[in-house]
Specification:
This protein has 198 residues and is mainly alpha-helical. It has one domain: Four Helix Bundle (Hemerythrin (Met), subunit A) (Up-down Bundle). 67% of the residues lie in helices and 4% in strands. A two-stranded antiparallel ribbon has the order 1-2. The mean pLDDT is 91.
Amino acid sequence: MSPNVFKIIFLIGWIAIETIRAPHRKRNRADRHQHRISDNRLNALEFSLALLGFVGMHLLPIIYIFTPWLDFANYQLPDWLALIGILPLAGSVWLLWRSHADLGTNWSPTLEVRQEHKLVTNGVYQHLRHPIYASVWLTGIAQALLLHNWIAGLALLVTFAPIYWLRVPREEKMMLDNFGDEYRTYMNRTGGVIPKFN
């Protein structure tokens, strides 16, 4: 199959992911003006991590799909292996949609808690504390299988690894500071990005 077919498949998934995220980002921006933030841990590190994520998830894949600039780093995968990339991509889209549906207005793109935020432990959050991060990992796997390029294909896995390892401990500390024993109990019975079924 042509590499362009795999690019189109990835692009469809990417558009689906951005379509899911868009209304939540918009609502979050509007809500920031209406509700008081009780805990905001946005700093230079958080800003740098967000920028790194943008490069790996958005900038490099789009450059690769729409220009020949990164073609010098192309690689070839067997079609059957590339087609397997559809599975984590579909899983990522579903998990992201379900995560946002379960979170509702409790989602924030940065490390902040608003006064009206509640701890969500139902839906996918019954088994995963970080399903949105799990969705990003799935997207990264799909990106490597569908975009056959050492730079664009691996960009999300490479850029998201430091984001995940640096952000999750800070996020969990913030949740413990705000929700205390309720969050500690929740941590003990759920998985991070790998489901824990009781």
